[in-house]
Amino acid sequence: MTKEHKLKINPAASSAGGVKSLTNAAQHIWHKSDLLTGIKAVKSMNKLSGFDCPGCAWPTALTENLAVEICENGIKALAEEISPNNADSAYFAAHSLNELRGLDDYHLGLAGRLSEPLIIREGEEHYQPISWAAAFDLIAAQLQALATPDQAAFYTSGRTSNEAAFLYQLMVRMYGTNNLPDSADLCHEASGIALTETLGIGKGSVTLDDFYRADAIFIFGQNPGSNHPRMLKALQKAAANGCKIVSINPLIEAGLMRFKNPQNLNGIIGNGSALSSLLLQVTINGDMALISGIIKAVFEFAEHEDANVIDREFIQQYTAGFSEFAANIKQMEWDEIVASSGVSQELIREAATIFCQAKRVIACWGMGLTQHHNGVATIQQVVNLLLLGGHLGREGAGVCPVRGHSNVQGDKTMGITENPPAYLLDNLAQKFNFIPPRKSGKDTIATIQALAAGELHALVTLGGNLLMAAPDTHATAKALQTAQLSVHIATKLNHTHLYPGKIGLLLPCLARSEIDRQKGIAQLVTVENSMGIIHRSAGVLEPCSANLYSEVAIVANLAARLLPNASLNWLALIADYSQIRDLIAKVIPGFTDYNHKIAETGWFYLPNGVRDKLAFATPSAKAIFTCHSLAQRQLAAGEYLLMTTRSHDQFNTTVSGMNDRYRGIKGGRMVLFMNQLDIAELNLTAGAQVTLYNSAYPEMELANLTLVSYAIPRRCLASYFPEANVLIPFDSLGARSQTPTSKSIVVRLRPNS
Ligand SMILES: Nc1nc2c(c(=O)[nH]1)N[C@H]1C(S)=C(S)[C@@H](COP(=O)(O)OP(=O)(O)OC[C@H]3O[C@@H](n4cnc5c(=O)[nH]c(N)nc54)[C@H](O)[C@@H]3O)O[C@H]1N2
Ligand SMILES: Nc1nc2c(c(=O)[nH]1)N[C@H]1C(S)=C(S)[C@@H](COP(=O)(O)OP(=O)(O)OC[C@H]3O[C@@H](n4cnc5c(=O)[nH]c(N)nc54)[C@H](O)[C@@H]3O)O[C@H]1N2
Ligand SMILES: [Mo]
Fold first, then answer.
1. Where do runs of H (alpha helix) occur along 102-241?
2. Residue 194: pLDDT band by 50, 70, 90 thresholds?
C-alpha cells in the first residue's frame, strides 16, 4: 500500500514542460545514480549512435538535432534502469518474499537492479543464487516435461528488442505453442484490430513530417504531457504552422493546453505556446457519440453549405460501405449524441467546422479510446471520420495510434502475437523447416485465467510486470502462484516476481542503456517506433553487474537446451546479432537489406501500404466504412464511471515518485478525482477519505482514497493505475480486443468509516 504521509493538493497546471521538467529530471538521476553516469547516458539517449529511450514509442525527430531528443519522463525512465544493482543475493537473503510483498511499487523499485540469476522453490521465503547454466537446464527440463507445450505461456512486455523478440517467438513456436501474450493485449490491441479490419494494416499511417503539414490534429484520450512529452514539440511546431489542435478528453490535461519547451529559452522564461484550439471535455466513454456527432455535423454542412467537405472522389475510388455508413449516421439523434458525449451540439459543430476547413487531418489516440468495451468500434468511428474527408495516404493526414512501450510495435512486427497471420507461420515453416502450431494461443487475460483454472503450468515473462499490469490484482496474484514454473527475465524487481509458484527463476538482463558485448564485440539491436521507423540502438554504459546476460543471450541459451534438434545453431547467433537480422529479413516482410540499411543510415521506414500508395490490404482492397451504435451503459443511482490513469511520476507499474505535477498532486497517489458538484451531492468535502468498490462485485474495493475536487465531468471519476486495478474484474473486457476496460469501471463509493 502506498504511504500517504504528506499528500498536498494544488490547483492543476495550465501548461506542461518548462524549466521544472529539467530540474525534476535531474533530481531523479541524482537520486538514483551518480551524476557522471547519468550525464553520459542522457547525452547518448535517442541519438542514432546511442540507444533508444526506454520510455515511450514516440519517434525521434530524425531530421532534427538528435542531441536534444530527450524529455523529463524519458530521463526518469532511464534513471530507473541506471539505478545501483542492490537487488543481489545478499538483498534477497535479508528480505523475505512476504516482507517484500508489503512494499509498494515505489519502495520495491528502490531495491535497484537485479544482478545475478536467482531461484526460489515452494516453501522457501528467500530467492537464492543459481548459475546460469543450471537455470537454463532446469527451465528446459521443466518445459520438456509438460504434457503439451500449450501448458506454457510466454509473455512479452514491449521493451524487448526486435532481435530478442524474433528469437523468442521462434523458440516458442518451435517448442509448439502460440501462447504469446504481450503487454499490447492490455494496451493498443483495439487499435490493431480496428485498423486491420478497415485499412488492412494494424499500424498508424503518419510520419513526424505529417504533423508539420497538418491543418488539424484531433487528439483522443491521450495525455502527451506526461506520457509522450516529445510529442508536445511536434504539436508546438504544428500549431506554429497554423494547425488547429482539438483535444478530446474528460480531463483538461496541462500538456494539451500550453507547452513550454524546456530546451529553448522562451520555454524556460516565457509562458510557452498555446496548443489546443479546442478542448472537448467528453464524458468517459462518450467518444463514440462525440465522433458520431462530428460526422453528423459534417454531413449537415455538406447538405446546406455547398462546401466541398466530403471527399466523394476518394470515397468512390478507395472505399466500400459508404451508403450504409451514411444511413447509420443519419438515424442517430442529436439529443442522444449530446447526452452520451456530454458535449454540447454547439461545441461538436465547432469541432466539425475545424474538420471541414482542414485539407489535411490527423487523428491521434491513446488509452482513453482503447481501454473500453467498445474500443474497437470507437477507433473505427475515428477511421470513418477520416475516410469521409479522404484524409489517408496524403501528406499531413492519417491515423496515429500513439503507442506505449518503446518497442511494442516492433515486437508485434516480429511475430509476438497469439494469433499469428498465416504468412508468418508459412515463412517460419519454410525457413526453419518445422511445423508451426496453427491453433491460436492465449492472450494475456486468457493466460491468467488458464493459470487460475490450473490449465497452464509454466509462465515465462520477457520483461514487464504482469501482476500489477493486469486487472484484479488479488486474483492475478493467486493465479500466478498456481504455476509449477515461473521464469522472469527482468532488469528490476517487481511484484510479479514475488508470486513465483512451485519453482521461480529470476533472470537478470542488460538494460538498453548498457553496452552489450558478445565475445568482446559490442552489439547493437533494433527497435520500431510508433511511426514504423526501424532504427538501431546501442547502449553506452558499462553493465551494472558482470553477471548479466542480454535478452538475446538468455533466449538463445534457453532455446539451445529446449530445442537441441532445431535446424539452427542458437548459440552461434549470440556472437553476432546481425545474423539474427539476416534471419528476420528472410521471414518478415519489409526487412530486405536490413543489416545494410542499419549500417548505412541507422534507420529506415517499413513499407506502409496506406501511407505509401493508398493500398488497402483488406479482402476487397478498399478502405472499409463501418457502422456502429451509440448504445452506452446507463449508470444506476449511486454509480460512477471510473478511469484509471497514469500520474506524471510513473512508467506503467514503475512508480518513480509520489507527485502528479500537472494535476496538482504532491506526496501521494491514493487520490480520487471527482467533480465538485458530485462531492457536494454526497455531502462530502474535498479531502475526505473514501472507499471505492466495484458495483457488480462489491467485495472488490480500494480504501483510503482522498477526494480531490477536479474539473472532470459529472459521474466520472479518475484514480491511478496500478493501485486501482483491484477494482477491475476479469469479465470486463473490450469486445474482440479482450483488453481490460481500465478506463470504464462502474463503481460506487462510501466514506471511510
Ligand atoms: N512517462 C510515462 N510515459 C509513458 C507511460 C507511462 O506510464 N509513463 N506509459 C507508456 C504506455 S505503455 C502507454 S500505452 C502510453 C499511455 O499513454 P496515454 O494513452 O496518455 O495513457 P493514460 O495515462 O492511461 O491516459 C489516457 C488519457 O485518456 C484520458 N481518458 C480516459 N478515459 C477517456 C475516455 O473515455 N475518452 C477520452 N477521450 N479520454 C479518456 C485520460 O484523461 C488521459 O488523459 O504511454 C507510454 N508512455
Ligand atoms: N488499470 C490499468 N491497468 C493497465 C493500464 C492502465 O491504463 N490502467 N495500462 C496497461 C498498459 S497500456 C500496459 S502497456 C501494461 C504494461 O504492462 P507491462 O509491460 O507488463 O508493465 P511495465 O510496468 O511496463 O513493466 C515494468 C517491468 O519491466 C521490466 N523491464 C524494464 N525494462 C526492461 C528491459 O529492458 N528488459 C526486460 N527484460 N525487462 C525490463 C522491469 O522488471 C520492470 O519492473 O499495463 C496495462 N495495465
Ligand atoms: Mo501500453
1. 105-109, 132-144, 162-175, 189-199, 208-213, 224-227, 229-240
2. very high
